[in-house]
Amino acid sequence: MKQFILVSFLLLLNVAGEAQSILFETNIDTAFAKARRENKIVFVEYYSKSCHVCQTIATLMENPKVSEFYNQNFINYKINVDPIAPEDQQFMDSSGIKPPGIPVFFFFSASKKFIHFAMPPQDPNALIFIAKTALDPNERVESIEKKYRNGDHSYKTLTAYSSYLQMIKSDSMIHVIADELYSIFPKDQMNSKKSYLTMRSFVQSIDNGFYRYWYAHRDSMINFEEGKYKGRELETLKNILTRSINSVESKKWNMQKVAEAKTQMVALDSTVNPDLFTWEREAQLFIEANNRKSLMDLCEKMLLRKNGNLKGDIYIIEQFLKLALEENELRKINDYIEERLQKPECTGVVNCNFTYLKAKYLVLINEMDSAKLFFNKAISCAKNNPGMDVSKFSELVNKLK
Distance between alpha carbon 100 and the CA centroid of its chain, in Å? Predict the structure, then answer.
């Protein structure tokens, strides 16, 4: 009898243990098929097995209250990004979502419409709050754009909308919302932690008021970060500056704006050579202004840069050859190509690339017979170097027929 009671007790413990786990479907298509049958939302945990925070979240999700709530209200699925399965990557690509990191909780309708997301904090009560928000059509992310369009431009709505826009990479609207956030933010509270955190989370342009304020007052930007990020407040300014330089908007910068960005890079100790980040825009501006001397001075400066390397030179020369260069300018660039072809370290894939650039130069000055010779040399080189990317060769094929 005692043995029977003990076995029964152990069985009950086992059942209780199973009840404490969230039930995850093993296939993304199965998850959505089940969601359609049961008229439920699909919850997707986006994580990595090697992520320490993800492991902590996984433990919290075994909390009976958390697991019970998710099992009752959602069809659950996990996407492990380490590595991500092809079918899961295909699903994420089709959703239009670009996760900024891990872990992230995503929620989708049974028809695969993206309706909500959240970065899960390490708190079981917060995990339930996230789930309840996803179930509320008036509170989840998909309703934020409607609120904004209907005139709700409160701080809460603007920040939630910006988070959503960042997830779907709608850069132009991200800048609009960031500017609105600055316009409504109390100016007597600019030198506050809330102001700093607003900038860190929602600003991606050096033209934004938050960035301009904190760049000017960076000496007072202290004690806002905690834990492993403590003392790294300046990194926020550097990150925004980098994103701004690499943005689509930077392709519209004038020379004054380029100079401003270069000054800020040096002031923030981002680099000792800001030309490395702005030379392509500067070259285009010199072309537009027909400032040929400055254009070629810039080309020389980049190709004679300190700590330069042949791989970097390949990219620089490729970009200059795409510009509307005059013949004397092309011949100057050819001198750089010839010089590099003679270097002992110009072998393998690097040699293939410079041989191809020689062929491209010859096409541009209309020396087609010589161009065919070097083009064939580049193809032969590529056959002996499987690591060579030959996709670029296609631009010369029709010209050399």
Answer: 7
Q: The domain 2-136 is classified under which CATH number: 3.40.50.300, 3.40.30.10, 3.30.70.940, 3.30.565.40?
A: 3.40.30.10
Structural tokens at position 161? 């909308």
For the record, the structure tokens of 293 come out as 């001397």
| CATH 1.25.40 holds for 289-401 | yes
Helix count (H) and strand count (E) of the chain?
Answer: 20, 5
Spell out where 37-154 has E strands.
41-47, 74-80, 104-108, 114-118
Burial of residue 189, with CB atoms counted within 10 A of its CB: 0-12 exposed, 13-18 middle, 19 or more buried: exposed
Tell me the per-residue pLDDT of 187-232, one tens digit each, with 9 for 90 and over: 999 999 999 999 999 999 999 999 999 999 999 999 999 888 899 9
Domain boundaries, the chain: 2-136, 151-272, 289-401
Q: What is the pLDDT of residue 17?
A: 41
Q: What are phi and psi of 42, to 5 degrees?
A: -95, 125
Distance between CA atoms of residues 174 and 162, nearest Å = 6
Parallel, antiparallel or unpaired: strands 24-25 and 41-47: unpaired
DSSP 168: T
Rounded mean pLDDT, 300-311: 93
pTM: 0.81
Closest CA to 232 of 190, 269, 182, 189: 269
Name residues whose C-beta falls within 8 Å of residue 50's C-beta, 6 or more positions apart in sequence. Answer: 82
pLDDT score at 15 = 41
DSSP lists the bridge partners of residue 74 as 41
Between the two ends of the chain, the Cα-to-Cα distance in Å is 93
Longest CA–CA span in the chain (Å) reads 101
* pLDDT over threshold 90, residue 29: yes
List the beta strands (DSSP E) in 197-287. Answer: none
